[in-house]
Amino acid sequence: MQDTFTTLIHKALNLRPTQVENTLRLLDDGATVPFISRYRKEATGNLDEVQVGDIAKSYEKLKETASRKETIISTIEEQGKMTPELRKEIDETWDSTKLEDLYQPYKPKRKTRAAKARELGLEPLALALMSGNVSDPEAAADKYLTDDVATTEDALQGARDIIAEWVADQPETREAVRNVFRREGIVSTKLSKGKEAEGEKYRDYIDRSENLAKCPSHRLLAMMRAEREGVIKLSVSPEEPEKIVDRLNRKYARNPKTAGQVEMAISDSYKRLIAPAMETEMEAEAKERADTEAIRVFETNLRQLLLAAPLGRRRTLALDPGFRTGCKVVCLDEQGQMLCHSVIYPHPPHAKTADAEAELRRLIDQYDIEAVAIGNGTASRETETFVRNFDKEKRLRIFVVSEDGASIYSASATAREEFPNEDVTVRGAVSIGRRLMDPLAELVKIDPKSLGVGQYQHDVDQARLKQSLDSVVISCVNQVGVELNTASRHLLTYVSGLGPTLAKNIVDYRTANGPFTSKADLKKVPRLGPKAFEQCAGFVRISGAKNPLDASAVHPERYDVVNQMAADAGCTVIELMKDKGKRDKIDLQRYVKGDVGLPTLHDIMGELEKPGRDPREAIKDFHFDESVHSIEDLRAGMELPGIVTNITAFGAFVDMGVHTDGLVHISQLSDKFVKNVADVVSLHQHVTVRVLDVDTARGRINLSMKGL
What we know:
Layout: H1 2-13, H2 17-28, H3 33-39, H4 41-44, H5 49-78, H6 84-92, H7 96-103, H8 113-119, H9 123-131, H10 137-142, H11 152-169, H12 171-184, E1 185-191, E2 209-211, H13 217-228, E3 232-238, H14 241-252, H15 259-306, E4 316-320, E5 327-332, E6 338-344, H16 353-367, E7 371-375, H17 380-390, E8 397-401, H18 406-410, H19 413-418, H20 424-437, H21 439-443, H22 462-480, E9 482-483, H23 489-493, H24 500-513, H25 530-536, E10 540-541, H26 559-569, H27 573-578, H28 580-584, H29 598-609, E11 639-648, E12 651-655, E13 662-665, E14 686-695, E15 700-704
Parallel strand pairs: 4-7, 7-8, 9-10, 13-15
Antiparallel strand pairs: 1-2, 1-3, 4-5, 5-6, 11-12, 11-14, 12-13, 14-15
């Protein structure tokens, strides 16, 4: 079976068989995608993380198909209907749709009209009508009259029911009709009776008709949501279904003497069995495509969000703004630990500006504050203005930070565990400050769906979404690396080879025994065996460790190689890391042996140059336009600075500091044609936008980036 999987995957992904075979072997051996792509390049032929991930996904899908085949074969064999020809077709088929078509005639069904007709003994009549072996259908039907089949028409109707099901179950029929639906299927919507009020928010999706294959994912998901809520009725059908019936008639109703009966059966088969099945199947296919697109957008956004530029280890004051309840203030040390918390009331209705300034001054001086993080919710702009006016000497770096998900975190079990004696407002302020210092470390504690960067995330397949987003989090955590002695249990959970149990064990061991002094100490953690150590060791860092390589992404299994390089250069490992001249003299070919090839050696040299380097960009300062604070301040034609807060298939949302994000439609992103929004803008990118129009009543702002 593995040989079959290797062949199918290498052809589908256009990869060499050895690349696929070795990757499957590593996956079966318990290796993770990040580990394989980073530390097994020789085995995979230098495949990147995306390619290894694609192999893993294809492998899982093929294993699911293989399991489904076993179920189908077993069911057909139990019925005693398996033939060598059918078995061969099933064995050779790996297309799930074709597989289900082959199974359709044998699939256990509820009590159908055809089943009842068979029980009445009418199957021979149906076969005679289909074969055309009777010259007079009515006369032939008379022979099947019984107490349960009272009239000739009853007999013919039963035979037609059998023919209708037989035609609908034929793989050739289903494939032919499916192709027409895929090519010509029209998705149409109509407002449900009595839903006029509810339909207002879906007015853009009512009384629409368009080719299903070309319907954008976001529009289809919106229409399907409206249908689930009972607001609209959605249907899928070719424009000319009668052509399908004519084609089926030509195929099955060949004998003029019985054609009338067969054509009646085919017409019934299409309306009652084939069309509803195809409509359901096409909606499911379209939904899957829409899900794929929506999840792809979400994955891209989440990756950009998690890899956002960190402020780094700076003493930070975080503000969760508010009017009536005041602004919650927390001070954090370089590690993100809370030093204190307070409340200030600089805004109406209290307007205790002088007291607020005095409290800020005290906290900043007492705790050597270097930066300020301000949540972007209610009173954000007012608070930012207050802090900037207070900081006349510009001693502080001031940032506005997204609050999305902060309230979810503050009420979570994770937050209660971290701050059992503090209320949700304090926890929320801590989260705001920490996500400025290290977005990745803080955001992994929050369900990605709560981070405000998705597109119809509640409408897509939730299991598939979770699996995809978890993969993104794992990828980002391992790409950046984790500081072993400060990482939270939640961050460690996503490190290659760990998971919740081992992450907890690591933190417990660290608490009981003090900081790790070497990566080798991980082997002392309960239940962390050789395989888990192999998978995780390259992705954790220990700053200030006795062995400098423990602070790098060089895997411990390759420490001997680096030690040999240093010995050959006549220096220590530390000297080799600091001296570019010594590194430049190293002939990597000398160290190629066994499973250590040039890809691994080049990675090692990169780490020696910048050990434990953070791949994220440096954070940039940003100021909103001081002349606008609310949507009422906006006028068409204004050009304003903004920050991209969300990316969808149809455009990008931009925060201009007015508490309502504006939309740059995909058609307004550039003077050139744009196929993919993410090709033009990225999350948290600083942009300049022009206001096109403002709908204050609906809270909608249309923007453009053309010519800017």
